[in-house]
Amino acid sequence: MTASTFLFATGIENSYPTINGGRTRIDEMEKCGHYTLWKTDFDLLDEIGSRYLRYGPPIHTTWLGPGRYDWDFSDLTFGELNRRNVVPIVDLCHFGVPDWIGDFQNPDFPELFAGYAQAFAERFPWVQLYTPVNEMFVCAAFSAAYGWWNEQLASDQAFVTALKHIVKANVLAMGMILDVRADAIFIQSESSEHFHPDCPNAIPFAEFYNARRFLPLDLNYSRRVDSDMFIYLMDNGMSREEYEFFMRANLKRHCIMGNDYYVTNEHLVSANGHSSASDEVFGYAEITRQYHDRYRLPVMHTETNVKEGPSGDEAVKWLWKEWSNVLRVRNSGVPMIGFTWYSLTDQVDWDTALREENGTVNPLGLYDLDRNIRAVGRSYRQLIHDWCQVLPAQSICLQLPITEPRDFDEPFARRARTSMKWICERTPSEPLMPS
User: Fold this and answer.
1) In a domain, 407, yes or no
2) Is there a contact between 295 and 311 (Cβ–Cβ < 8 Å)?
3) Strand ranges (E), 206-314
4) Most distant CA pair in the chain: distance in Å?
5) Would you say residue 385 lies in a domain?
6) Mean pLDDT over residues 2-8, rounded?
7) CA dist 72 to 75, 77, 203, 318, Å?
8) Average pLDDT in the 337-343 region?
């Protein structure tokens, strides 16, 4: 039957940006052992009771060129997820592109990526939930504003160029996926940020940064940007035609606003415009309210974690703090549909934001890299057990039309897809790509 329950999710960390001028690729699935232990990793989902997995194929080894793909690993892994009736939330671009694309300054990337997204959807038609491009703001900022990844540039013009290409790629991919599966649902995984001034002279910088943080979702959801941001975009290389493309895309109705929150997502801004981590000031609930007030979409908490420290309970405390924030948001009337501890296993070198290849294991997962459960994994398992039957009973008004993999070919699922296709054809937006 169609699932409408709360989505308790985790994820396989699959970042793959390049550093050192493109000479070194940081492949987290390789560093965390997923390529060899993927069956074990899927077993762990059963152990903690999660049936929703943020997951995606490694773009740099799957997408070999225009119209050329190597689906071998994806066929194995997604075939197994289908067999287990796990619902994947598929991210197709996670902080990097194949070597032949170059980087996010390449103007051909959006249209080419849309073709890749279409090819994936055609090969795995039972997949319904997508995050086409993961954390668009972080991807553009780290690659083209901070100079850390991929093109390793640090200017407003480079940032706007990366941003417009990344968001256009996301929008075009949504359109192509909808052509294949009309009832596809897009769960953006976007970093939720806030900037606090540390003195009166820092207020203009904080206001600018707090406006800029909304740019990816404004463009993605066809929301006209604030006047200062419009000038910023125009001054740094976005044309009026490019801007109007985003304004007429009109795909918001297919989306859930997924937002990520870490202790590093709030920033302290100084009078010279420099920012540093402020630790948690407002917290997830307040910042999510800001984003929800702006976009008025259902919300999913799509990423959080914290390092397990010397006392062994740091991550457990953070899990319950974030969960309490989720309940607070939900009880205030915001439609919350899911929560995610990211990721399933520990990660490697995120203490330097993947800028250095040191092989440092970051104890952030529900399991360590030997696949032994951590204290936070036991707590998350208990949380899922305690709450999975309680939350759906609180409301019958918001029901997600999610079709489980095992039900893809059932008559009711076929009818749902046909109905959604008819609705989309009756309310078309302008073509996103030339015919």
Assistant:
1) yes
2) no
3) 255-260, 266-269, 275-277, 299-303
4) 63
5) yes
6) 73
7) 5, 9, 52, 38
8) 97
Residue 350 and residue 264: Cα distance in Å, rounded?
Answer: 12
DSSP conformation letters of 94-127: SS---TTT--TT-TTHHHHHHHHHHHHHHH-TT-
For residues 244 and 258, what is the distance between their CA atoms, to the nearest angstrom?
24
Q: Which two tokens stand for residue 272?
A: 């010279």
Mean pLDDT of the chain: 94
State the Cα–Cα distance between residues 7 and 185, nearest whole angstrom: 13
* Both tokens assigned to 262: 């870490």
Residue 432: inside a domain, yes or no? no
Which amino acid, 48? I
Task: Write b or e for each residue in 16-55: b if 16 or more Cβ atoms lie within 10 A of its Cβ, otherwise e.
Answer: bbbbeeeeebbbbbbbbbbeebbeebbebbeebebbbbbb
Query: Does some domain include residue 435?
Result: no
When pLDDT is cut at 50, 70 and 90, the band that residue 433 belongs to is: low
Phi and psi for 221 in degrees, rounded to 5?
-100, 10
CATH number of the CATH domain containing 395: 3.20.20.80
Above 70 in pLDDT, residue 324?
yes
User: Exposed e or buried b for every residue in 128-163, given b needs 16+ CB within 10 A?
Assistant: bbbbbbbbbbbbbbbbbbbebbbbbbeeeebbbbbb
Q: What is the pLDDT of residue 426?
A: 60
For residues 147-171, give the mean pLDDT. 98
Cβ atoms of residues 304 and 260 within 8 Å: yes
Tell whether omega for the bond before 343 is within 30 degrees of 0, i.e. cis. Answer: yes
Of residues 363, 283, 296, 287, the one with CA closest to residue 323 = 283
Q: What is the residue whose two structure tokens read 């970093």?
A: 191
Global pTM value: 0.95
Residue 284 token pair:
């997830």
Query: Which helix H or strand E contains 18, and what residues bound it?
Result: strand 18-19
* Domain count along the chain: 1
* Nearby residues of 271 by Cβ (< 8 Å), 6 or more positions away: 198, 199, 201, 202, 205
The residue behind tokens 């943020």 is 54
| Dihedral sign, Cα of residue 141, residue 144, residue 148, residue 151 | positive
**Domain hosting residue 408, numbered range:** 2-426
Which tens digit of pLDDT belongs to each residue from 10-22?
Answer: 999 999 999 999 9
